[in-house]
Amino acid sequence: xxxxxxxxxxxxxxxxxxxxxxxxxxxxxxxxxxxxxxxxxxxxxxxxxxxxxxxxxxxxxxxxxxxxxxxxxxxxxxxxxxxxxxxxxxxxxxxxxxxxxxxxxxxxxxxxxxxxxxxxxxxxxxxxxxxxxxxxxxxxxxxxxxxxxxxxxxxxxxxxxxxxxxxxxxxxxxxxxxxxxxxxxxxxxxxxxxxxxxxxxxxxxxxxxxxxxxxxxxxxxxxxxxxxxxxxxxxxxxxxxxxxxxxxxxxxxxxxxxxxxxxxxxxxxxxxxxxxxxxxxxxxxxxxxxxxxxxxxxxxxxxxxxxxxxxxxxxxxxxxxxxxxxxxxxxxxxxxxxxxxxxxxxxxxxxxxxxxxxxxxxxxxxx
Length: 367
Hints:
It is a single chain. The termini are far apart. The chain is of the alpha+beta class. It contains 3 helices and 26 strands. Strands 1, 3, 5, 8 and 9 form a 5-stranded mixed beta sheet that branches. Strands 13, 14, 16, 17 and 18 form a 5-stranded antiparallel beta sheet that branches. It has a 4-stranded antiparallel beta sheet with strand order 2-4-7-6, with no helix packed on it.
């Protein structure tokens, strides 16, 4: 009989609690005020709050604090609540009093966010292993395990230090820890070969939450992107002088590493060559023509064409012509100087002056 009475009392208390919640008026002029106005608590940590029930309206009426866990202490019109370890999810506190001469209760609700940072965060490429291929679409998948509340979780995808996008589970109101997956579509290019993709999970709990907010990152995954060979210029025109070395470079960038094949304009050249560079020590007119190099890997290929023009080496002829010209100039100068000397030096002496001088010298000689 006594046990039945206890059950009845408990049921009545539960009914009254439900009545309080269902008939609670939150727009009273003198409504209860919680400090703090919102509570953010890490799962398992202690928590506390106080409620100033009213200034005057609650005097001589019934008032209290409705709580499912923790302890409450009443001091005048102030109700204090505390718990050593908060382990329940999705709880609220309601502070209330009965409005005189009515069946209405005035109340305020303290929202409590119980959070748990993720146990782990992992990233992968959905339904894919091995290297990616340039231009194809892939889905990065970030999995966050055992996090609460998931609606406050923000996941950001990164390519190196560059953020690619942010995602949240706005429609998931589950207050208990859950595992959640987030996806982002990417289209890699050759510039993405070797970059690191990663994601960051951050609980954004508002101004009442911890500072800085809880953040969990993970080990990066390094991408391998296969792409067809690529060269900056696919055609070249090269003009060289006969006798100079010829150097043709067909090096291409590609993953996997390209292999090379060449076609040559003359049967005098080797028909098999598998290096990216082709050399001729001394170019001749027979080496003129178009040289084509193909760089190929498993993704694709690219061709590079070299049009080679060989011009004659006229430097030896110019040197000989210059020497002949110098000799000719010197010869002409010598002839002109000889004629000038005869005309201006020997022409100054007349023969009669020579005989007169001879007659003057003979007496002197005989004496």
